[in-house]
Amino acid sequence: KASEYAGILASTDPQMRAWAVTLATQISREETRSMTPELEHRARDDASPVVRLAVASALPLLESNAVWSVA
After folding, report:
1. Distance between CA atoms of residues 21 and 36, nearest Å
2. Residues 3-51: tens digit of each pLDDT
3. By the 8 A CB rule, do 21 and 55 touch?
4. Is the pTM higher than 0.70?
5. Which 3 state secondary structure label does DSSP give 35?
6. For 52-61, b where at least 16 C-beta lie within 10 A, e where not — what string?
7. Angstrom distance (rounded) from CA 16 to CA 8
8. What pLDDT does residue 29 have?
9. Degrees, nearest 5: CA angle 63-69-49
10. How many CB atoms within 10 Å of residue 48?
11. What angle do CA 49, 64, 33 make, to 5 degrees?
12. 53 vs 19: CA distance, rounded Å
């Protein structure tokens, strides 16, 4: 399932990327774990404050060891 969000995360629309982050982190912990590198990238490099807010809002849903790498 997480792979389905990869195409949306590549969208030029920041609202679409933000929703992809939100929805991708609502799935199982295993699936969310596979999204950690992409979330790190979005937190660090995405120019949109909307996307970065979505990543920050998803932090409580991540495993504790992934939170620090994303934050």
Report:
1. 10
2. 778 888 889 999 999 999 998 888 777 777 888 888 899 999 999 999 9
3. yes
4. yes
5. coil
6. bebbeebeee
7. 6
8. 75
9. 100
10. 14
11. 75
12. 11
